[in-house]
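[audit] Reproducing an earlier prediction to check determinism. Same input, same settings, fresh worker. If the tokens differ from the archived copy the diff job will pick it up downstream; this log only records the rerun itself.
[audit] input (399 residues):
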Amino acid sequence: MRKLLMLLLAAMLLVAFVTACAAEAPPPAPAETPAPVQEATPEPDAPVAAPEETPEPEAPVEGVDMKVALVAHGPESIQFDGSFNEGAWNGILNFLSAQGLDAGTHAMFFQSHAADDDARVDVMADAITWGADILILPGFHFATSVYEAANLFPDTMFVILDAMVNFEPNPPPNVVTILYAEEQSGFLAGYAVVKEGFRDLGFMGGVAVPAVVRFGHGFLEGAELAAQELGLAAGEVTVNYHYIGGFAPDPGVVTMAGSWYAAGTEVIFMAAGRAWESALTAAEDGEDRWIVGVDVDQSAVSPRIMTSAMKALAVSVNDMLTDFANGAFRGGSDLHFDAAINGIGLPMENSHFSNFTQAQYDAIFSQLVNGAVVVSTTVTPTVAEAGLALEIITVNFIA
């Protein structure tokens, strides 16, 4: 009996021990439910920006001390023209400001006293006598004289804008030439105004030199593509097209532009230097008359500037001066500023479009960048000779 009691007591102690251990053990944690996966929302593509007129400042180059001259090709080519020269001058000012250099002592504007190569070489020599280390030469007019000046002054650097100078087989190591894709910039302007709703257009070029012709032909091709996309009928878009014979303000331009507007022209693209001032006079003399500016964003001049076919003048000049300051001047090079490097464009943020959108602009700009749209670079005296395959728009070429 005693033995049986001992066995029962042992069994009871064992049960109590097991129960106690079970009570101390924490309950198993419930299985965690994985958090739902948040799929990243893709960021929208940034809108295409116009060429910067005030580029991001470059880091100052230690110890840089240089003088820069902007040289105009003739007496009518002024410094503050609201267009080509002024865009180049702004590039000089941007550079000097970033370097902490005083523009009053480190930059100078020089103007040729005559519109010929001998006078241009003379004024370049004047700039070098003043102390210029590098000369900025805006315009195709320097295409011949720069070669002579570069050989006369091999220690001075030259940057010529809007000209491709054939120096082969021995390009001077102290000259850089820069071209801009005017055909693409003009194309965007033509495309935009037709998408906006304009059907009666005008183009006035200064002289039928390559840069101006590319602007004009691009304008026509842009208008043609927009008309095709809109499903317009042949002849529904018309363009008066004329080279006025110069780049200065002219009463004759006021008269012609006024007659175009009176006959129904809604917008005129002025690729003619300061002659835009004359067209603007006519535009401001009536209602619903518009101008497309050229070279730089001219929107601040007048609310009649619908948009501007821009070139990255300030950026390209700033780049060349920065190269020189860093001892990396690209002498002997022919450089091309096009859509692929944001070298051309429209200032969408300052344009007066109601129907043409940023999204439409971005889409057509990307097609220029990726080559889906190719604009002709053919330079011919007349539009008909260029073979632009214009099926919808009608061009009234005025000799």
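[audit] rerun output stored. Observation attached for the diff report: Confidence is low (pLDDT under 50) at residues 1-44.
[audit] end
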